[in-house]
Amino acid sequence: DEEEEKLHILVFPFMAQGHVIPMIDTAKIFASRGLKVTVVTTPLNAPLFSKNLRRSFPSIAVETLEFPAAAAGLPPDCENFDVSMGFDAVTKFFVAAEMLQSPFENLLAETRPDCVLADWFFPWTTDSAAKFGIPRLVFRGTNFFASCLSELTRIHQPHKRVGSESDPFPVPGLPGPPVFLSIDQMPVIDRLLGGETFVGKVFERVAEAESKSYGTIHNTIYEFEPRYADLYMKELGRRAWSIGPVSLCNVGIEDRASRGKESSIDEHSCLRFLNSKKPRSVVYVCFGTLANFSDPQLKEIAAGLESSGREFVWVVRRETNRGGGGGGGDDSWLPAGFEERMEGKGLIIRGWAPQALILDHVAVGGFVTHCGWNSTLEGITAGLPMVTWPVTAEQFYNEKLLTEILGIGIAVVGVKVGSGAVADAVGRMMAEEGEEAAEMRRKAGELGRIARRAVEEGGSSYGNVSALIGELKRDLRRRGK
Ligand code: UDP
Questions:
Q1: 376-396, pLDDT tens digit by residue?
Q2: 3-class secondary-structure state, position 78
Q3: What's the pLDDT score for residue 4?
Q4: Which InterPro entries match (predicted)?
Q5: Ligand 1: centre distance to CA 376 (Å)
Q6: pLDDT digits (tens, 9 = 90+) for 248-258
Q7: How far is Cα 122 from Cα 191, in angstroms, rounded to an integer?
Q8: CA of 164 to the centre of ligand 1 (A)
Q9: What percent of the chain has pLDDT above 90?
Q10: Which end of the chain, N or C, is more open, meaning fewer C-beta atoms within 10 Å of its C-beta?
Q11: Active site residues
C-alpha cells in the first residue's frame, strides 16, 4: 500500500538552535513532499520544536537519544551547544556528541529508515548509515560561497603563509572578484584543520565524511550565487542540492512565531507595535542565538539606535544568558532613561523574538545582523538591506557575500563599535534619499522575489527537492527495496 512505498528519512540536527531550526524546516519540507520523516534529538531539545511540529506536521515522528553530558564532563543539563561556553566545554560537547554513535545505530536498527540526513557536525553518521547500507545526506546549513571559502582554504592553506592574524590574503581558486580573508575572519573550524586538537580532528573527519557521503543539502538558492554553486559542484566535484530558503515552509503566523522556541514576547503585541508603523520604517536588530555582547557594547548600540532617530525592534539576549530569567530587573546596561524616551518608538525584546514574523512585516525596512546564515538568508528572503556585524564562525564569509557579492550590506567594522558607527550604518541603510540605499533596496527586493520563486513549483529549490527524492527512490529500487 501507499504507506509501504513512502521513503523514510531520518533527520538528525546538531544540538544548537542555528542548526536545529533549519533542519526542522527541512524535515517539514520532506514531509510535505510525501516522505515519512523521523527527527532524532535529545530530551531537552525535543520540547523546543515538538509543539510546533504537532500543530502543523503531526505525521513527523520525534525520537530522543539520551545526551551523555555528564559522562563527557559537562553539567547534566547541557544539551545545547554554545561557543561562548569556552573551548574546554566545546571539546567536551563534541566528545559527548561522538558518544551518540552507538545509541544512534541502535535507533537505525529499530526504525530502519531508507536514508539519513544528518548535520555536518556528525561525521560518524556516514559510517553508521553505511553499516545499514543506506545513504547519508549531509545537512550543510550554509551557502555555496562560504562552502567554497572553507574548501579552498582547506585545499590551499593560504593562511599558513601570512605573518599575523589580521594580514589579508586572497582566497586562491575563486571565480569572480578577488575575495580577501584574514585568519581572524576564519571560522575556528577552518583554522583548526590539520591541527592536533580533538575538535580539529573532528572537523578533519567532517570534511572526509562529507566527501564520502551521498551529498549535501545547502540552505541557499542557486540563483543567488551560481558561480560559487558551479565551482562547488562542478570543479570541487561535490554533490549538492540547494533547497532554500527553508524558512518559507512556515506559512501560518503561529508556525513562524514559534520557530525554534516560544517567543519571549506575545507575537500579537509585537505585531501591534509593527502594525502601527509606516512601511519600511523600522530597523530590526538581532544577533542570533550565540553572540554575546558586553554591557558597554550594548550601551553603545542603544545610544546608536537612539541617535539614528529610527524606530526599532531590538532583541537582547543578555538576561537569558546571565541568569536574570528575563524578568526585568537590572537595566544598568541601558543608557539612563532609555526605555522611557523610546516608548512607542523602540521595542526591546529580552530573550527570544519571533524573528521570521518580524522580518516579513512590511513595517521593517532594514536588519542589523550578526550574519549567522539563517538570519542572513531570512533577511534576504524578506528583501531587506542589512547592516553586517559578524562576530564568529562563518559569519565573516556571509558578510562578504552580502557586502561584496550581493551588494545589499553595509559593514560595521571593529571589535568594539561605538554609537556613532552604529547610528551611521543604520542611517545609511535606512536613508530615504541617495543612491546607496535606493540601490541596496532595489537589489534586496529582487533577491527576495528570487527566493520566493525558488521554493514554488517550477523554482530551482523546489526542483532540487524533487530531483533528490527521485534519485533516492531510484537508488532504493536498484538496491532491491
Ligand atoms: N532566532 C529567532 N529569535 C531570536 C533569535 C534567533 O527566531 O530571538 C532564529 C533566527 O530566525 C534564525 C536562528 O534563530 O533562524 C539563528 O540562526 P543564525 O544562523 O542566524 O545564527 P546563530 O544563532 O546560529 O549564530
A1: 999 999 999 999 999 988 999
A2: coil
A3: 54
A4: UDP_glucos_trans, UDP_glycos_trans_CS
A5: 9
A6: 999 888 888 88
A7: 19
A8: 32
A9: 80
A10: N
A11: 19, 119
Q: Whose CA is nearest to atom 24 of ligand 1?
A: 18
Q: 171 alpha carbon to ligand 1 midpoint, in Å?
A: 28
**Residue of 249, 330, 324, 320 lying closest to 287 (CA atoms):** 320
Q: Are 351 and 331 in contact (CB under 8 A)?
A: no
Query: For ligand 1, atom 10, which residue shows the shortest CA distance?
Result: 375
At a CB cut-off of 8 Å and minimum separation 6, what does 354 contact? 256, 257, 258, 259, 263, 265, 267, 270
**Once rounded to an integer, what is the mean pLDDT over residues 446-463?**
98
CA distance 479 to 403: 46
Start-to-end CA distance of the chain, whole Å, equals 14
Ligand 1 atom nearest 141 alpha carbon: 19
- Classify 407 in phi/psi space as left (phi over 0), alpha (psi -120 to 50) or beta: left
For residues 360 and 326, the answer to whether their CB atoms sit within 8 Å is: no
Burial 322-331 (b: 16+ CB within 10 A, else e): eeeeeeeeee
Give the Å distance between the CA of 197 and the centre of ligand 1: 28
Task: Give CA torsion, residues 290, 48, 365, 461, to 10 deg.
Answer: 100
457 Cβ neighbours under 8 A, 6+ residues apart: none
Strands 282-286 and 240-242: unpaired
Atom of ligand 1 nearest to the CA of 356: 11
Which residues surround ligand 1 with Cβ inside 6 Å? 17-18, 21, 259-260, 286, 288-290, 315, 352-353, 355-356, 372-375, 378
Q: Which of 188, 289, 391 to mutate to test the pocket of ligand 1 (most atoms within 8 A of CB)?
A: 289
